[in-house]
Write a structure and sequence with these properties.
This protein is mostly helical. The chain is built from 5 helices and no strands. The relative contact order is 0.11.
Amino acid sequence: MGCFAAFFALAMPRFVMVLLWLFGDYLSRAYDNFFLPLLGFFFLPTTTLAFAVAQNETGGLHRWGLALVIVAVLLDLGIWGSGRGAFKRK
């Protein structure tokens, strides 16, 4: 069950990014070029989505937008850190 949760946590933000890329312009309104979302897809997908929400919905990195991006960074780093911790325990 833990492996399914880990796979879900890693796959869902990437799946959402692909859907947004295929069916809308949400990411392109938040980013000027394609390079940063591509990097975000591989390294920090939750942060990439949070930044897009902050840009499109809250008008940038002000108050709630900044808080959203900080929480997303912590989530992304937590996902990476928990996988590293599980690897060390074995």
